[in-house]
Amino acid sequence: QVRLVESGGGLVQAGGSLRLSCAASGSIFSINTWRWYRQAPGKQRELVAAVTSGGSTNYVDSVKGRFTISRDNAKNTVYLQMNSLKPEDTAVYYCNLGVGLWGQGTLVTVSS
Fold first, then answer.
1. For the segment 69-95, what is each residue's pLDDT rounded down to a tens digit?
2. pLDDT, tens digit, 9 for 90 and up, residues 14-67
3. Which residues, 6+ apart, have CB-to-CB distance to 87 below 8 Å?
4. How far apart are CA 11 and CA 99, in angstroms?
5. Where are the beta strands (DSSP E) in the chain?
6. DSSP class of residue 59?
7. How far apart are CA 92 and CA 109, in angstroms?
8. Main-chain dihedrals φ then ψ at residue 68, nearest 5 degrees
9. Helix residue ranges, H only, 19-76
């Protein structure tokens, strides 16, 4: 059974940086697309970034140029480097590796 375990959230001031990690335990296919989602209080969960097995990436417009998603297939891990953080980035961030495969969520709080 595959489990996704996230780390790296926390409290940071506006303009700061954080790096989220999500490691998969168990057997996964490297062909899967990794995704990061986030959910702010009172809002719907939104897709933030995705990276395919071939390394192609895409981002929601609000984070383009500030966030970078990457993956390490040998470690079954995906990362989200978040720079120039803004208060509106405050949310619980979730990694996803396909239908029903979600991390537990990690809280990112950006203070103004």
1. 999 988 999 999 999 999 999 999 999
2. 999 999 999 998 877 667 899 999 999 999 999 999 999 999 999 999 999 999
3. 14, 110, 111, 112
4. 30
5. 3-7, 10-13, 18-25, 34-39, 46-51, 57-59, 67-72, 77-82, 91-96, 106-111
6. E
7. 9
8. -135, 125
9. none
